[in-house]
Each structure stands twice: as C-alpha cells, then as structure tokens.
Amino acid sequence: MSVPLVDFQRLPAEQTQAIREAVLRVLEHKRFILGEEVAAFEAALGQRLGGVHCVGVSSGTDALLLALQACDVQRGDSVVTTPYSFFATVGAVLRLGARPIFVDIDASDFGMDLRAADLRHCAAARALLPVHLFGGCLNLGPWQHALPNLPIVEDAAQALDSRDAEGHFAGTRGRIGCFSFFPTKNLGAAGDAGMVVTRDAALAGRLRRLRIHGQSAPYEHSEIGGNFRMDTLQAAVLLASLPFLDAAQAQRHANARRYAALFAAAGVEGRVVLPRIEDGVGGGARHTVHQFVVRIPERRDAVLAGLKRAGIGAAVYYPLPLSLQPCCAFLGHKAGDFPVAERMAREVLALPIAPGLRESEQAEVVAAISKLL
Ligand SMILES: Cc1ncc(COP(=O)(O)O)c(C=O)c1O
C-alpha cells in the first residue's frame, strides 16, 4: 500500500462544494482584481488572529518582500535571520540588496537560538526575521527584550493559527507577520496567495499602497511597490475553506497523537526523535502540525530511500542550510559555521500528517521506518 505525503483528493466533499460555489460566484460577478472576497477574507482572518489588520497578497514570498520593504530594509542593510528555512526567507532579504546575518538554531523548536547570537552585531541590523517552522510558534519575547530597537518581521508561512505559550498568534507579536496559502499549507489556496498582518493601522495602509505599485492616489505613486495583489479567486477559495480549518487542525493533532503512540509501541526511542506538539487545549502553546518532522540521527537517508521504495511519501525540509546555498556563497560561510542547522539538515524527515490520512497508513509508515532501522 502506498501512502502519499499529501493527497488533495481527500479534501472533504463539503469543502470542495463550498469552494466550487465560491469560485462560480466570482466567475459571475467578474471583479477579478481586489473583488469583495479579498476584503472579506482579510476581515475574517484578522478577526481570527485577534484583531489584526490583514493585507492579502500574491504569495508568502511576496508577503516577506513587502514586509521587509515596509520596514525600510534597503541595499546595504542587514537582516538577522535563520539559516534553516525555505529559501523564500533569505531570498526576500537578498532581493532587496540586504545581507542576512544568520543565527544558528535550537534543535528543540528549529528557531534562532538567542544564545548563539552576537547581539552587538545583530543590533546594527535593520530587522529581525524569525521563522515559525512546521506549525510551531516561537517565543519571541526574549528577542524583543534583547534587541528592543529591531522591528520583527515574522515568517509565519507555515504557522497560521499557531500560538506561543503566552497566547500570541504566530505572526502577530512582531511588527509584521507573513503567511502563505500555498496549496499544501494548513489553509491552502488553489494556487499562490499570501497575507501580511500588522497591529499598526498606518503600516497596514502603507502595505496596501505597496501592494499596488506604491500608489497613493489613482496614477500617483508615492513610493515604488509592485503588483502584489491577492487574486479574488484565491480569496474566494480561502474564505470558503476557512470554516473547515478547525476540523482539519483537529485531525492533524489526532494524527500526531497516533504517531506518538505507534512509535512508542515500536520501541525505536532514540533512533526516531519525535517533535513536541502542544495542542493548545485549555490554553498555552498550540502547534498546528503543518509538518510532522521527526529526527533520525543515524541513517536518515537510508530510511528515506527505503520509504520511497515502499511508496511512502516522506520529505526532507530542508536538506541544505541557507548559509550553504550556492547563491549565498558571496557571504563566505562554510560547513561548520551553523552546526545545529547543518545537523538538522542531516537528521530531519517529514512524514505524512495531512487530514484524511488513515490509521492503517500511519501504522504502515511506522512499521516501515522501524524495519528500515
Ligand atoms: C517558511 C516559508 N517562508 C516562505 C514561504 C513562501 O511562501 P509561498 O510559497 O506562498 O511564496 C514558504 C512556503 O512555502 C515557507 O515555508
């Protein structure tokens, strides 16, 4: 039996129907650019995230670019960020002509480790760009305390609805939060879409202007922005999908609990290190399990190859730290500079977790890994 990493065909029939109706409504009213669904989705998400201003954009990548631009990151500036993320994080910094200052990560939450930061060097940067990976939510309080003058742009592309232990939603604690609705995300569009969020109304206004070429009045441009608009069709899909998000998250948590029980029974403790997944029930931190990432300290690649042979979907997020990407060679980093990030790149393995995953499939994944080890 093969087990897919993600299978879009398993979307609940009710949700597919709601999406179909929403898309048809847009095809009828034909306001394809910034139609009313964009504002309606922005309002719904803003309310869900505790009353933030939301600006719908074309992708999570563009959300990052726009957010850094709105923090006035310019050529020659530096931005403190992680060497362990999807490329878009550092790509946004580099596209603005800025330089990343990488800080090695903490293996417990994959976030930048404050103890590894050179704070004097970091304090001279223009912004701080932490990443909430895999559905976890970092505690940014100590960073705000250590670097009080640095605006924080949160890359929360993978962490919609996640909360830290103090109840802050990922993306809402810093100056600007950035989200992605890439189809595989917990809330996925039918294509590319993203969101920038902020508590600052004036900043939200600037983000809205930057979204349409920095336009301050029709055909008058106060600064240089771009075409970063969210499509009405994508907003309609997202708005229709939003009511189904809680049930989907509950399934991710149930799947994570089942993996914990199956791995415990398999007796592979130490050879498979499980993630810490808080479900937020009764308050406290909430991990939204965007990815279920285990660590396999020995023979990860052999396990991955074996799973592939067995038709089981698994993936490595991320095999090469950003510091060692070919296009970052000019920064002069070498292997060994960020040892924890480099070790994670060798050990991590994401397993199928999406809603719709069957109990028998999870049992098969765990049995296959145990056998391969
Ligand atoms: C951590 C992180 N940042 C940024 C992005 C970019 O988002 P998008 O694919 O919507 O451009 C992603 C997305 O996949 C991501 O995982």
By CATH, the topology of the largest domain is Aspartate Aminotransferase, domain 2
Mean pLDDT: 97
How many distinct folded domains?
2
The CATH first-level class of the largest domain comes to: Alpha Beta
C-alpha end-to-end distance: 20 Å
Number of helices: 12
**Number of E-type strands:** 11
Shape: globular
Protein described:
This protein has 373 residues and is α/β, with parallel strands linked by helices. It has two domains: 8-243, Type I PLP-dependent aspartate aminotransferase-like (Major domain) (Aspartate Aminotransferase, domain 2), CATH 3.40.640; 244-372, Alpha-Beta Complex (Aspartate Aminotransferase, domain 1). The protein contains twelve helices and eleven strands. It has helices at residues 13-29, 36-48, 60-70, 87-95, 119-123, 141-146, 201-211, 232-241, 245-266, 300-309, 339-347, 359-372; strands at residues 53-57, 78-81, 99-102, 127-129, 153-155, 176-180, 194-198, 215-217, 220-221, 292-295, 348-351. It has a four-stranded mixed sheet. Helix 2 (36-48) packs across helix 8 and helix 3 (60-70) packs across helix 4. The longest helix has 22 residues, at 245-266. The protein is globular, with a radius of gyration of 21 Å. 47% of the residues are buried. The mean pLDDT is 97. Bound molecules: pyridoxal-5'-phosphate (PLP). Pyridoxal-5'-phosphate (PLP) is lined by residues 59-61, 85-86, 88-89, 131, 155, 157-158, 180, 182, 192, 194.
